[in-house]
Specification:
The structure holds two protein chains of two kinds. Chain A is α+β, with helices and mostly antiparallel strands. Chain A is built from 17 helices and 16 strands. In chain A, the strands form five sheets. In chain A, strands 9-16-12-13-14-15 form a six-stranded antiparallel sheet. In chain A, strands 4-5-3-6 form a four-stranded antiparallel sheet. In chain A, helix 3 packs antiparallel against helix 4. By secondary structure, chain B is an alpha+beta fold. Chain B has two domains: 123 residues, no CATH class; 71 residues, no CATH class. In chain B, the strands form three sheets. In chain B, strands 1-2-4-3 form a four-stranded antiparallel sheet. A four-stranded antiparallel sheet of chain B has the order 6-9-8-7, with no helix packed on it. In chain B, strands 5-10 form a two-stranded antiparallel ribbon. In chain B, helix 1 runs parallel beside helix 6, helix 2 packs antiparallel against helix 3 and helix 2 packs across helix 6. The longest helix of chain B has 31 residues. The two termini of chain B are 32 Å apart. The chains are: A alpha+beta, B alpha+beta. Chains A and B meet through helix 4, helix 5, helix 6 and strand 6 of A and helix 2, helix 3, strand 3 and helix 6 of B.
Chain lengths: 409, 205
């Protein structure tokens, strides 16, 4: 089992706000730092992170080696910013890069181990706790937890490891810590007996592990330039003409300004959703697991600073009222994680007379897999429509007011 | 228990529980699964152990040495054994003790201020001119060049001692770095017992 997540160097002239618009699937793979457009220092950063993860290199050694690489590449800090957080040679910036990346790699390693069926069965839940001491700890975690759809158990922030709460909580869209810049919060396992006692699940209940994002990258162990062409292709696929590479360096076009009223994807010249899909397919879960998630109140999709959209029991009632068969309802419940992924990280969001539509297609080999989620103005999901073959139906929903587009601000 | 050049390995072997599970899953899968569960159980016991130690011992909030150790735990499992590895600089020294010597003609610099944890003197002082060795009662310190004070002490020269310089640092073994072996064994055994019971009851996949 890999215990760290090697990342591929991606030099870029983009700012941190622009990079935040990259799909999480790309951000997980890419090793970048805002406005660092030289590949050699990024390679050294990758090497240093690996050295720290292996316990072979200290932070001080890493900072020294990265500064040398920056000097060799002729790096100059932005005018008037020497020594500040915007200066890649400064200790603050280098500590931020190294600490965030090492914690992220270790967080991924633990997540990967926890997504083993036996391990998930024995330790199905985890608690959000303070791991690292901070001089001035953030006091907003409990509020963020509630906004992310999390429940409190005797004041403790506990959820099943497969709950969408963890992704909702994260500024980076990852279910593992760190959940924010400079955060000292982490997770502690909750064993099966305690999870059952808290009512999180029953003795017979199993959780479906989420497939590991990019296992082939995780197995590589060394951040390598050889994977860079594939990563560049993924970025170009997600952004289309909004991104370009000059040499190895990524530039992002100014984001599309939204909302855009009275328009359609065809009018805007947008490609089909499948042409920009880069997110791997989430797991399909048994209907009873989907129902348990809905009953828990944690079937919520959001992100820090974004609206909250929740899935309640009225969705299944809506399907019954429409006269759907049990098999049809089960087929939809199977794909609850697809629906949540569409809400958490949609490719497009359209406001239409019949509600707000969250559209997403996943990157798959062969048959396309897409999901359309319809929500009411109060942020309650009305229905979701999974499908692979009804491309024309999906296209019909790409009309109205464009509220959000992947890569747009 | 064994040591790697940069960390600690805790190795776990299981024969009896593996035989019970082998009847359900086959020998190879059962052995690996048992070792994985035992190793994970120990790892999941170690993390809060280190976090609690961090809360007790981390005088420097910028260090968080033991919290980082908690996050540096990972497990591996094979048919033969399970392993819990903690790859963290100096953790083996904390456990086993010993003497660390400075390189010939050099000294080790122990930071005396919170903000300097993890920062080499060479990084803190861009030029040799910025620092000097200050000796006091047989001890050597690295101090910043006195500079003009500001505020209340304006006009007075201020001495800022930043590092203690030592030829070597010795430390005895500290068994409390890890939970007692009996506790780790009990944790692993309890976990595997629950796992087997769930398998026999048909509750595992």
């Amino acid at each position: 089992m890999p215990y760290d997540l090697p990342r591929i160097p991606l030099p870029t002239s983009a700012s941190s706000a622009e990079l935040a618009a990259l799909p999480a699937a790309i951000r997980r793979q890419a090793l970048f730092s805002a406005r660092l457009s030289r590949v050699e220092p990024l390679v050294e950063i990758g090497r240093s992170i690996k050295g720290i993860l292996d316990g072979e290199r200290s932070m001080s050694e890493a900072r020294r080696d990265i500064r040398r690489a920056l000097d060799a590449a002729g790096y100059e800090p932005p005018a008037g910013e020497a020594g500040t957080l915007k200066d890649h040679r400064s200790r603050r910036r280098l500590d931020l890069i190294l600490q965030q990346n090492t914690r992220n790699a270790r967080g991924y390693g633990k997540y990967a181990a926890d997504m083993d069926q036996d391990v998930l069965d024995m330790w199905p839940a985890q608690e959000l706790v303070r791991i690292m001491a901070r001089r001035v700890p953030r006091t907003t975690w409990r509020q963020r937890w509630r906004e992310a759809g999390g429940q409190l158990y005797g004041g403790r922030m506990i959820a099943l490891k497969t709950s969408p709460v963890w992704v909702n909580l994260s500024r980076f869209g990852n279910p593992w810590p760190p959940y924010d810049y400079g955060s000292g919060m982490g997770v502690m396992d909750i064993g099966r007996a305690e999870a059952e006692r808290l009512g999180l699940l029953t003795p017979e209940q199993h959780l479906t592990p989420e497939p590991l994002p990019y296992p082939e990258v995780a197995e590589a162990r060394l951040p390598g330039l050889e994977e860079m062409p594939e990563l560049q292709a993924a970025v170009l696929k997600a952004f289309g003409p909004g991104a370009r590479f000059e040499g190895d360096t990524l530039s992002l076009a100014p984001p599309v300004q939204v909302p855009l009223p009275h328009t359609s994807a065809a009018e805007l010249g947008y490609e089909a959703l499948r042409d920009t899909a880069v997110t791997p397919l989430p797991a399909i879960v048994p209907p009873q697991e989907a129902r348990a998630l809905i009953a828990s109140g944690e079937a919520v999709g959001t992100a820090p600073g974004r609206e909250t959209v929740s899935i309640g029991p009225e969705v299944e009632q809506h399907w019954h009222d429409k006269g759907y068969s049990e098999a049809m309802i089960d087929a939809r419940l199977h794909r609850i994680r697809h629906a949540l992924a569409a809400i958490q990280e949609p490719q497009e969001v359209w406001e239409r007379p019949d509600g707000t539509w969250y559209l997403k297609e996943f990157e798959t080999e062969g048959k396309p897999v897409r999901i359309l989620v319809q929500a009411d103005p109060e942020g309650k999901v009305i229905t979701w429509i999974p499908g692979g073959s009804r491309a024309r139906y999906a296209e019909s929903k790409r009309k109205g007011t464009l509220l959000r587009k992947e890569g747009a601000s | 228990m064994s040591a790697t050049p940069f960390g600690i390995n805790i190795r776990i072997y299981a024969a009896e529980p593996a035989a019970a599970l082998a009847r359900l899953r086959g020998a190879v899968a059962a052995n690996t699964a048992i070792h994985k569960i035992m190793a994970e159980a120990v790892a999941k016991d170690l993390r809060p152990w280190f976090v609690a130690r961090n809360a007790r011992k981390s005088r420097h909030t910028t260090s968080n040495y033991w919290a980082k150790a908690a996050e540096a735990i990972h497990t591996t499992a094979t048919v033969q054994s399970g392993t819990v590895t903690i790859r963290h600089p100096g953790i083996r020294w904390h456990l086993e003790g010993g003497t660390i010597h400075a390189k010939p003609g050099k000294a080790m610099a122990i930071p005396l201020r919170d903000a300097l944890y993890g920062v080499w003197p060479r990084e803190h002082f861009p030029s040799r001119e910025d620092a000097f060795v200050f000796r006091h009662r047989g001890k050597a310190f690295l101090a910043a060049r006195p500079e003009r004070g500001v505020g209340q002490g304006r006009g007075k020269r201020q001495l800022r001692i930043l590092y203690l310089l030592l030829r070597s640092v010795s430390k005895g073994p500290d068994a409390s770095v890890l939970p007692p072996k009996a506790q780790m064994r009990a944790t692993a055994n309890n976990a595997v017992r629950s796992f087997i019971n769930r398998a026999i009851a048909g509750h595992t996949k």
